[in-house]
Amino acid sequence: MRRKKKLKKPVASFIILTNIIFWPLFCVVGAVKLLGYPTWLFDTVRCLSAWSSTFAFAILFPRIYPGQRFIHFVKQKFKNKLSLSVIVLIVMIQTAIFIMILFHIMNNYEETSIFTLSSWGMLSFYFVKTLLSGPLGEELGWRGFALLELQKKYSPLIASIIIGFWWGMWHLPIWLTTGFMGMDLIKYSFFFMLTIIATTIIMTVFYTINQNLIIPIIIHQLFNFFIGSINGNLIDLIMYNAILYSAVAVLLILINPKKVLYKIQSAK
């Protein structure tokens, strides 16, 4: 059988196809919500839409890496031994950010509860739902492929900014369903993009140190889980996260600029 022709612009093709798959699925999510279908169906379709990047990467894989097997590629992304110190540091940083935001909300919140989750059962369910409808479906394509592919040409910082920007723009349909308009939508979009890019830089630093896809999955999961578990004004929450995650990103660059500012020789 003739080998398929290799794509000239694999990352661009990946980003385009990811959006082509995501938009129709997101419209289905909206239709399921508007028509009042059961919650489980809404959650299922929403979860599928979050996996659009994985679907796109799987479809393009034969033309991105001709002759390789998709399953083997995926296994390689998880084969390296996880560093306990890296995981502990990630958890400590994100928990500290969560606590700082929590205390700020507590001092300015007038409602009966600052949490969206009221029981251990709800907490566990939300944790699993968040994992399935975000980190597990997104990281293989965005970090496991696109980020590392760009690092063959650009420095980790530039690659992070590029992927962070397009990863953020992929969320555009979600912005339009927040109910924000005018200046509120502009503020939300700006802080959202700042948070996404800063988070991508943090992922890149720790993923470079410990090249196992579990690392960006953990960072992504903790971000989504923590921000979703706090009640409060969404614009304020995303603004606080933008400021604090950006501060961490800058600090990581200053501490070890070689991990971020300079092009690595090979990205596997």
Write the layout of secondary structure elements.
Elements: H1 10-34, H2 39-50, H3 52-64, H4 70-76, H5 84-108, H6 120-132, H7 135-150, H8 156-170, H9 172-175, H10 182-209, H11 214-228, H12 234-255
What do you see in this structure?
The protein has 268 residues and is an all-alpha fold. It has a domain of 179 residues. It is built from 12 helices and no strands. Helix 3 packs parallel to helix 7, helix 5 runs antiparallel to helix 12 and helix 10 runs antiparallel to helix 11. The longest helix is centred in the last third of the chain and has 28 residues. The two termini are 27 Å apart. The mean pLDDT is 89.
User: Roughly how many Å apart are the termini?
Assistant: 27 Å
- Helical percent range? over 70%
- Written as H for each helix and E for each strand, in order along the chain, the element string is HHHHHHHHHHHH
Give the integer mean of the pLDDT values: 89
Name the shape in a single word: globular
Compute the gyration radius: what is it?
Answer: 19 Å
What's the helix count? 12
Low-confidence stretches: none
Structural class comes to: mainly alpha
Number of strands: 0
Largest sheet: none
Q: How much of the residues is beta strand, in percent?
A: under 5%
Summarize the structure.
The protein is an all-alpha fold. It has helices at 10-34, 39-50, 52-64, 70-76, 84-108, 120-132, 135-150, 156-170, 172-175, 182-209, 214-228, 234-255.
